[in-house]
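Please decode residue identities from the backbone states below.
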């Protein structure tokens, strides 16, 4: 796992810790999917990024 990936997951984990509803969780995951796509310069598949992020965060 690269440094960017680690920082992204750490930030997502902290942000998701404060979520109280499913809607907030979905919004935060969507934000981090967008940030990942930005870091990948749009070359990734958003569905795959979403799935991997959700698996990594539990």
């Amino acid at each position: 796992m690269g440094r960017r990936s680690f920082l992204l997951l750490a930030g997502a984990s902290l942000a998701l810790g404060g979520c109280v509803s499913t809607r907030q969780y979905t919004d935060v995951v969507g934000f981090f999917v967008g940030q990942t796509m930005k870091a990948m310069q749009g070359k990734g598949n958003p569905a795959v990024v979403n799935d991997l992020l959700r698996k990594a965060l539990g």
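Observation: The longest helix spans residues 22-39.
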